[in-house]
Every structure is written in C-alpha cells, then in structure tokens.
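Help needed: design a sequence for this.
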C-alpha cells in the first residue's frame, strides 16, 4: 500500500494532448502512476515524493488547447500504483461515454508553422497539424473521436506519421488528423468545369489573385471567396457577382500586415493570435484600403491565417486578402467540391480545392474588443463545441433549446453545462434548415444528450419553434414557450454567472423584433425579474411598422412614423419628398400590415434615415444602425447635443419625441451629422439607464443586465455602462447579445420552471 493522490480534471481536457502532457510531467517529476480519459474528463493517479505538487504543476503548465475548470484532489492508498517501464503510463480510456468530447478547431500552432516554412518533410504542406492545432469539429463524422470517425479515415498513416502518432513524447501523439505529403490529403487548383490546372496550387492561386481574379478557397468549415483586398476593381466585381452591394467583407493577413492598415492594441493582437482565430473588428488606420470593403464604416473585420493552406497563400501574396463566406446571398457556405463549383461558378474564376471532406459547415467567429475584453458577435469556428458553466441554483436537467428564426443557434444543457451551437443563420433558406437539423443531431451525440424538456420562442411562426414543438410532441416531452426578450435577459444573466438565488435583475433589452406578451412587436424594454419570470417595467413608446417586413429594410418608413408621432410630419415631408408618404400613413392609420413595435433597432433606423443614411433601403440587416454608430464615433464628446430625456418615465412608456425634435432642430442649425448621431446614442443610453437605475435604487432589482442585438453596438453599450457606472452591470462576452444567444436564455428559463410549472397547461403546451 502506498499513499498517493487521485486527481479528477474537468474541462476541455480531451483531444488536446492532456494525457501525454501528464505523462511527460510525471516523468520529469519522478512520479509513478497512470492517466486515462473517461466520461467525466481525465483521471490521474500519482505517487512519489512530489505527488502533492502535481496538481499545481498541471495548472501552471497545461497544454495550449486545454481549458482546466477544476482539479479535484483526493488522498488515496494504491495497491499497485507503480506502472511497468518508466513508472507512469497512459492507460486505455475507461467507462461508457469515454472519449466522446470533441474540441473546437484550432489555428496552426507556432511549431507547425515552423514545419511548413522549414525544410523538413512537411515543408509547404497544407495539412500540417499536431495535438496543439488543426481541425477537430469540422472533420468528425461519429463517436468516439478517433481517426476512423473523421474525414481523415481514407488517409492511412505512413510509417513515419504512425511512429509520431504512437509516441507519447511526440507532439503528434494521438493527433487524429496527423498527416504528411506521403499519406495525407492534397490540394489543387481547379477551373469552373472541374479540370485540374497543372502546377503547384498555392503558387497558381497567388498568380491569379495578383492578376485580379476571384477565387473560391476550401477552408476548415467551408469555402471562402477570395480576392486581393487592395484591388478595388476585384472587390467591385466580387460584390456585383455575389449581389452583396454594401455588407462588410472580412479580411485576412499576417499581424504585421494588419498593423499597416488598422489600429491593433496589445489586447487585440493577443486575441487575433488565439487558437480560435476569430475575425476581429479593428479601426481603420495607416495605409488606406478601398472604402468598398465596408462602405460607411470605420472598422474592418480582420483575421490571421488559420490553417497551413492560408498561411502559405498569405506568404505568397504578401498583401491583404478578402476572405468572405463562399455562398450565394442568403445561403450557407458551400462545403463540397462539386457543390462549390455548382453554386460559386458564377462568382469565382477558379477553385483551390482538396480531398479532405468537411463534415459540417462552420462559419468564422466574429468578435470586437470592449473595455472588458473580447465580445463575441457571431459564434463559430474555434468556440464550438465548447461548453459554458450554468449559474448556481438552477435545477439539474437536460433541456434542448431551439433558438430563434434569425441568427439561429441551438443550446443543450446537462449536468450544469451549456453547449451553445455555432451560428446557423436564417432558417428560411433550405440549406440552412438542413444544417440546423444536422446540428440538432450532431450536438446531441457529442453531448450524449437526451432532453427532458424542449424550450422554444413564443412566436408560433418561427421555424425553430415549430421544430421544437414537433420534437417535444414526438417524444412526449414538456414544451416551454419563452418570451423573446426574457430569453435575451436570461442569457446575459446566465453568462455572467448570476445565481438563481441572487435576486431580481433589471434587464435593458434593446433589440430588433420579438413577439411580446401583449401580442405587439417588442424591442425596447426594461424587464424586471429572474430566470423563472419577468415583467415589463418600462418600454419605448410603440410606433407602427407599415409594410411589416419592408419596414425593416426601408428606414424611411420608420422615420416617417416616428416624426409623425412627435408632431413633426412637415419635417418628414421635407426629408422624404419622393417617398409614398400618403400611402404609408394610410396603411398605418388603418392598421393594415402595420403592427405596433417598441423596437430600438427600428428607432436607430429612423434616426439614421433622418440623417440621410441609406433611407431608401438597407443593403444588409443592421446597415443603417452600423453606419450611424460609425458616424457617431467621429464626433467628440464636447460636440454631443444633450436633448431632454424620454417623456413618460413615470408611466413606464418612454416617448422618443424629444430625440426627433432635437434631430430636426439640429439639422436646421447645421449641427454636424456626427454630433447628431452621437446625440442619438446618448439619448437612448440615458433614457433607458434612468428607469433601470430607479429599479435598483428602490430595491426592486439588484443588478442591471444588458442584452439584445442593439448591444452589439459598442458605443451604445459603453454609454449605457457609463450611465450605470456605480451599479452592478451584467454584460455579454462569449455569448452573442443578439439572437445567437437566445437559446441559452431559453434553456435556463426552462430549467428554472422545472417541476410543477412543466405541467402547467397555461404555460406549457405540446
């Protein structure tokens, strides 16, 4: 009998080289024992003089992709802790469910980058990877996660790669995608008809890009459309062919090159270099690039090369590249070679293709920096299928939450963890709907998930809600219908770790559109409550949305309605003389296809239209508000007008008439558009902060949560945060503030309502 320790390590610790790391660390420390994967994470037994120091050593020096959440250390007496050979062994995984976790895809690590730029056998090889980097989630076809259950299965390991794969001292030990030019995938350049062009693919691609061509390039989670980001003519051709007139285009370049065109703080540089390799919004600076990359915006979305193929192409080009999703407008990315040529053949002149299949579509993650660190705008490659901890105090249970219609995502909760999916997109598109259904099955398998209840948005016409209702009906499960903005609030609370017993919260929920409790369209609320329930404590005064969906795409419609409501109809006539105002007013008066809405998203559209920002039509969702934010960022604080705050705070209805009077008067005085745009943001921030502050002051709320798609606006977020500076404020970070985070909120609300509420027919239907 020998005294030692059992260590239970939980977190992202499988598929990241954790076992060989333990093996190497134990050998250096002169310890005996073993390590294995099981259904709960990693289990380690250690004995020896320094066994008590092993947990601290693990925390201080974990593998690059590991995310240790907790190490539970238990003193233990071992009958036979000594292992054969060197004294510490990697044992076969134990228990049902072992090795079922798959880590997110990770950008090329420095060691592999050195390999492809060196002179060894992987020099210039586009599929170089190791335990610390490379594809994971995008190549998995089944469980358990081993090579036979990935799209690398057709590529048998050569003797050299097999030796690396089986050597615990090698960084490629049990790296499932390990390969080399002798045994792995290959890449080539193809024409639109599929013919392979003779020559080395990367060199041929660089030559064509320098000549101004548009290429489709196969990445980790799908194809990208690529062109020279310094070539304005190529950018315009890409926009015309893709029917994407103004939506920002993502860019890729090495860090040194990004610094020539953008302001890159130390924190931003660190985030760019993270294994997630996100697209990060950075202010334009230095040497200018064509305005057409992001018309009207002062930020560009940049990412570093994420794979060896992208590094090799960037090295060959030595200039920034446009790297935008390879899809037709409104559809998801192409992932198959034949599919790409069929769908993108009218856009791209040639295709950089390879023979490693993509198991699932996965968009790039999009983030921006805030004073509190990076904030995720779109969840994607590099984050999923990672999990998030649930806040304390909620009942245990397994819930499937189906999310919303736009920017859809699903969420599964189990054993105190939430798995929030990647961005799936607009569910009306057939291929997106197919990807949504695949994600439902994929994540259930990865999480070994068997739901006990299904949560959906209250809107009956959302395809996600209909899917969830059918899932619940087929399995005989409770169906929890959740109000859209309560889900936003709960998502923010959950991400911030706000416990179920921590007290009520005032949620400032500023959004586009969501069905409210009263049957109207909400989008500018202050909710008061908890996970179990919330009531509307204040809201923006509603206005009609004449034309329904057209009011979302044509900002002038919202402007006329808001100006009329403020008694400024004559100003609307002056600002929009050619618009069919009479017909619009007639429709609003009759209530025909003109639902009432308190949406702050539409309020931003109205204010933007008054300032001449894309009043007739938006080229993409949120364009008017994004351009208004950019314009406001060009003003100084001292220039910002301060208008009277919203009327009606005492009655809980925030009337924006003072905002529009201030706008029209400012235009008449010749106040700069930048100052007026900043004034709009300040008015909204202060008008919503004041009643939220009052709820906390009266003891009705203990904190303020900020959620909804409008909080992807960095200026608005910081203005409201400043107005609440002495109060506890809950923010989003890893969970999108917009509809990409809805499913998390739905899931925790469903958990909070577990028990008798799951049987309440007034709240739960099948």
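Sure. Designed sequence:
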């Amino acid at each position: 009998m020998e005294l030692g320790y059992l260590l239970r390590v939980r977190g992202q610790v499988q598929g990241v080289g954790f076992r060989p790391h333990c093996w190497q660390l134990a050998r250096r420390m002169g310890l005996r024992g073993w390590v294995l994967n099981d259904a709960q994470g990693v289990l380690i037994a250690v004995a020896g003089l320094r066994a008590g120091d092993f947990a601290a050593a693990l925390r201080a020096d974990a593998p690059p992709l590991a995310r240790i959440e907790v190490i539970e250390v238990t003193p233990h007496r071992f009958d036979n802790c000594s292992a054969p050979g060197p004294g510490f062994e990697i044992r076969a995984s134990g228990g049902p469910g072992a090795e079922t976790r798959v880590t997110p895809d990770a950008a090329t690590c420095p060691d592999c980058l050195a390999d492809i730029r060196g002179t060894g056998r992987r020099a210039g090889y586009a599929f170089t990877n190791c335990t610390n980097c490379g594809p994971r989630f995008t190549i998995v076809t089944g469980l358990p996660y081993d090579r036979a259950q990935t799209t690398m299965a057709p590529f048998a390991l050569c003797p050299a790669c097999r030796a690396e794969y089986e050597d615990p001292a090698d960084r490629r030990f049990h790296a499932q995608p390990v390969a080399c030019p002798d045994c792995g995938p290959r890449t080539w350049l193809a024409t639109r008809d599929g013919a392979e062009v003779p020559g080395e693919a990367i060199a041929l691609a660089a030559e064509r890009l320098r000549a101004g061509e548009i290429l489709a390039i196969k990445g980790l989670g799908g194809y990208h459309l690529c062109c020279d980001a310094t070539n304005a003519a190529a950018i315009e051709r890409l926009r015309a062919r893709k029917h994407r007139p103004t939506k920002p285009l993502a860019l890729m370049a090495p860090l040194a090159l990004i610094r020539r065109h953008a302001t890159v703080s130390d924190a931003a540089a660190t985030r760019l270099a993270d294994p997630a390799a996100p697209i990060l919004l950075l202010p334009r600076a230095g040497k200018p690039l064509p305005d057409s990359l992001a018309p009207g915006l002062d930020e560009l979305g940049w990412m570093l090369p994420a794979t060896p193929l992208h590094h090799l192409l960037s090295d060959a080009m030595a200039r920034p590249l446009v790297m935008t999703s390879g899809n037709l407008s409104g559809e998801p990315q192409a992932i198959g070679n034949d599919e790409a040529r069929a769908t993108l053949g009218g856009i791209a002149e040639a295709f950089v293709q390879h023979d490693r299949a993509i198991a699932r579509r996965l968009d790039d993650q999009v983030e921006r920096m805030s004073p509190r660190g990076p904030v995720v705008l779109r969840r994607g490659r590099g984050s999923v299928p990672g999990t998030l901890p649930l806040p304390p105090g909620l009942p245990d249970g397994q819930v499937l939450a189906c999310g919303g219609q736009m920017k859809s995502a699903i969420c599964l909760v189990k054993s105190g963890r939430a798995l929030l999916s990647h961005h799936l997109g607009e569910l009306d598109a057939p291929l997106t709907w197919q990807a949504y259904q695949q994600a439902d099955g994929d994540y259930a398998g990865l999480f070994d998930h068997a739901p006990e209840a299904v949560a959906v948005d209250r809107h009956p016409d959302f395809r996600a809600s209909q899917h969830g209702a059918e899932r619940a009906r087929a399995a005989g499960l409770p169906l929890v219908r959740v109000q859209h903005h309560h889900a936003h609030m709960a998502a923010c609370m959950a991400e911030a770790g706000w416990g179920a017993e921590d007290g009520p919260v005032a949620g400032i929920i500023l959004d586009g559109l969501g069905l409210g409790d009263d049957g109207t369209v909400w989008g500018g609320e202050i909710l008061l409550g908890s996970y179990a329930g919330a009531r509307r404590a204040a809201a923006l005064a509603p206005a009609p949305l004449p034309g329904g969906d057209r009011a979302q795409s044509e900002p002038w419609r919202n402007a006329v309605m808001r100006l009329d409501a403020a008694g400024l109809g004559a100003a609307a006539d002056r600002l929009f003389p050619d618009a069919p105002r009479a017909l619009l007013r007639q429709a609003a008066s009759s209530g025909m296809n003109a639902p009432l809405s308190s949406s702050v998203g539409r309020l931003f559209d109205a204010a933007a239209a008054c300032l001449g920002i894309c009043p007739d039509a938006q080229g993409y969702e949120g364009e008017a508000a994004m351009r208004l934010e950019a314009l406001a960022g060009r003003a100084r604080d001292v220039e910002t007008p301060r208008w009277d705050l919203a009327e009606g705070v005492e009655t809980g209805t925030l009337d924006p008439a003072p905002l529009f009077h201030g706008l029209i008067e400012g235009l008449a005085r010749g106040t700069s558009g930048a100052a007026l745009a900043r004034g709009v943001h300040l008015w909204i921030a202060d008008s919503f902060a004041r009643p939220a502050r009052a709820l906390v002051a009266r003891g009705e709320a203990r904190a303020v949560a900020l959620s909804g798609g409008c909080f992807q606006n960095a200026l608005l977020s910081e203005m409201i945060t400043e107005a609440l500076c002495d109060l506890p404020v809950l923010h989003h970070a890893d969970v999108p503030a917009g509809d990409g985070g809805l499913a998390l909120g739905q899931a925790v609300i469903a958990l909070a309502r577990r028990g008798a509420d799951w049987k309440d027919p007034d709240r739960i239907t099948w």
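Residues 212 and 226 are 10 Å apart (CA to CA).
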